[in-house]
Amino acid sequence: MKRRDxxxxxxxxxxxxxxxxxxxxxxxxxxxxxxxxxxxxxILLDLVGPLTCFNMMMADVHLAWKTxxxxxxxxxxxxxxxxxxxxxxPEADVLFVPGGLSGTTAMMEDDDVxxxxxxxxxRSGWVTxxxxxxxxxxxxxxxxxxxxxxxxxxRDLLALFGATPTKARVVxxxxxxxxxxxxxxIDFGLTLAARLRGEDTAxxxxxxxxxxxxxxFHAGSPxxxxxxxxxxxxxxxxxxxxxxxxxxxxxxxxx
Amino acid sequence: MKRRDxxxxxxxxxxxxxxxxxxxxxxxxxxxxxxxxxxxxxILLDLVGPLTCFNMMMADVHLAWKTxxxxxxxxxxxxxxxxxxxxxxPEADVLFVPGGLSGTTAMMEDDDVxxxxxxxxxRSGWVTxxxxxxxxxxxxxxxxxxxxxxxxxxRDLLALFGATPTKARVVxxxxxxxxxxxxxxIDFGLTLAARLRGEDTAxxxxxxxxxxxxxxFHAGSPxxxxxxxxxxxxxxxxxxxxxxxxxxxxxxxxx
Lengths: 255, 255
Known about the structure:
- 2 copies of one chain form a homodimer.
- Chain A is of the alpha/beta class.
- Helices cover about 45% and strands about 15% of the residues of chain A.
- The first copy, chain A, contains 10 helices and 11 strands.
- Chain A has helices at about 5-15, 20-25, 45-55, 100-110, 110-120, 135-140, 185-195, 200-210, 220-225, 225-250; strands at about 30-35, 60-65, 70, 80, 85, 90-95, 125-130, 145-150, 165, 170-175, 175-180.
- In chain A, the strands form 3 sheets. Chain A has a 7-stranded mixed β-sheet, sandwiched between helices. A two-stranded antiparallel ribbon of chain A has the order 3-4. In chain A, strands 8-9 form a two-stranded parallel sheet.
- In chain A, a hairpin with a 2-residue loop joins strand 10 and strand 11.
- In chain A, helix 4 runs parallel beside helix 6 and helix 7 (about 185-195) packs antiparallel against helix 8 (about 200-210).
- Residues about 1-30 of chain A have low confidence and may be disordered.
- The interface between A and B is large, with 76 and 79 residues.
């Protein structure tokens, strides 16, 4: 089977629509191992955009947390971990860390979480995040000397961890790929799909997800939204942003 | 408090970052009631994009299914319903139906599900869907005489239900708003936010979600992806699409 055909089948397999030949084909390619941190206070959309792409890449996704207790997300929907830190595979093709400002801030000073992210990060093929998840990668010492991004309002904090804050939707530097805020998860997922499975598969996934975005307004970045709206967001987020900054400084002093 | 300031606070409240004044302010505006169908085989991203926007609009979101048993989604993550059909509020500001091709096909001929969608649809301020969810709205008789959209590969089926299939990311016709495939949920959510809470709030949400999409490829629609890729997707999806078409025809003969 040509690789292009095979990859198309891979996407189908994950959607439960595989034919017998697809299933047979899927045995020919190594499945990916993805370790995704899940944590209380995470933004569910940070996880689900990339997760949808991971699944279509024929991945075994491990949703890892300290315990098997469901973690509560911003959306009200809880996510059940599939493994504990202790039971999680020690190595992975991809480590993925979603964000969520208040959740990330708490996790940055949680030794268990940081230790887990560091251990899997140093043993994974790709070290990745979306939104404020990059602060956690930074706290684990995984961004030293790397260009990286984050949600627009926390991007500059990455410098505290020895990274070069970089303004882009998705930033790839070596094996580290970081995405911008929340909705960047889909752009990130497709970028990673292209690296891991080739551009044809990434485009197949994009068409299947009908990712042809047409935002009704031009307000997705501070530059497009304008000063007044950006100031309003920053003002309203000031307490949480101050807390994140303070935590990042304390952590940075130790790594 | 000015409405603009208030709306900014609303967004914050839903993220758990509200100050005391925000909480006080939030009592001044009526909370939205959203009824969202959840069903086995749904695409989690169909739900989570809109859900993120609903929550930022200060909504009470009811995730409704036949029972309280968690429903399994494409992603492997299960979603716990918050209410059964029987216990669900009879009226809502918004009825929302996510998609998922095989799941939707099964639901179209499930009398309990169709009956629930019809009853809430006729009593809701806005009748909405993303992706193949519009097939279920159609099966419930809610799209007669309406312009509507769906995932690109099921859009034409809407004609069977008396709708006018319309090619657009988000289609609004009266109180019916339908979105395209999967990732259109974010465009849909912002469109609805503007209708319900005003453009300033919608833009605030867009900036907070950093919705500044930059797909790495141009393959999000059949036109952009090109004939070969579109044919490949259609060929691979043929069995599921044939099943959806057959179900839609059977249902259409009865409504």
